[in-house]
Model the fold of this input.
Amino acid sequence: MSEVHNFEKEMNRGFIQLVVLLLLEKPMYGYMIVRVLEQNGVVVDENTLYPLLRRLEEKGALSSRWDAPEAKARKYYQVTDQGRALRGSLLEIWQQQGKAIEALRQEVES
Amino acid sequence: MNAHITEFLERVRPFLVAADEQDVLREIAGSIEDKEAVMPGGDTDENMIAAIATMGDPRDVAAAWSTAKPAVAANYRKVHWLVAGLLFAVTVGLAIISAITGGSTFVVPIFYVPSLTPLSLLYYLPFAFVFDYGLASILIQVNEHFGNRVGIEWVRGIVHHDRKRGRPTVGKVVGALVGVAGMLVLYLFARFSMLYVLNLQGPVHFMAVPFFVPFAICLLAQSGAVFVVTCLQYARDWPGYAFVRPLAGMIALLVAATVIKQPVQSGLAEGALRGLLVLIVLLETWNLFKGVAEAFFAWNAAPEL
Done:
């Protein structure tokens, strides 16, 4: 079981990036992203998500701003034009990979 | 901000890189508060403690959340300084011994100083520190590569033993001043040959040898440096003085020994005095290493290695 979990973690690295780029069309903060993803069946650890957000921000795929109208300071992330372009490319790859896996699976089964 | 969060952030902070420290700490705080807010019962002490507990070990949190890449991983930074401090203490100690005995010194294997002069010190010591820091980095990275968790128990033992030092008392300041006075008297005796002993030929100078004056000047310089740093430490408590005091003493010794270096003399008296000087240097080397360890443990609020 733990072996499967390790493989899942490896597979999730690219997947979570793509999901985040899809989700952040509107500004969201870290914990909100965790909750929304959970509601959609994607469990992501905070220790994975926050560094990923910062890495995407460093690469220009996300922009961020601090919003602290109340006591709680929250950093909102949103996808940039560069991020949208990246998302488009990743989606294409994702779809190609999906097709390839489906084709291979059918070939093996037949 | 909640006291529990502040306490947790202070435990994370030492393992972060300055470049994104504030950003990461603010996000961690926000994340904990959000977690607590959705717990049954809302804003209670128990919920806050539980929310913090879900974050995990502070050093793991820092390593996971920070994207800045230090040369040495955050978990190892303190040990890195300790090893660099130990290597530098030994380097300075060896340089002083070389200066006193009139020999050469070198940083293995690339930097050779045939004879130390005050000018060569200006570039030798900073260069040696950079080299020692780099060497410590390599040692730690090799250790990391092989997956060992760094633990230098005996270093911790030394530091814990000496950590109570803190700000010096008036007595220590006076003691340092008495030390200067004592060395001044020693110098006056050496300089003006006032110590006599009687033998069959009548009164003769006690230790009236060319090495005695430089020896006394060395000790005077060292005690003077220690006194100055002790006064500074008394005026303003700062953990770094634990490191500065022995370093100042050693550099004073080194400069004095280099400036007044005499040709090597033969005879028991010179040999004994040189041996005594080398012993003082070794003790100061040890003090310097302990100082580095204490200073960095104090600065980092001493989370366990």
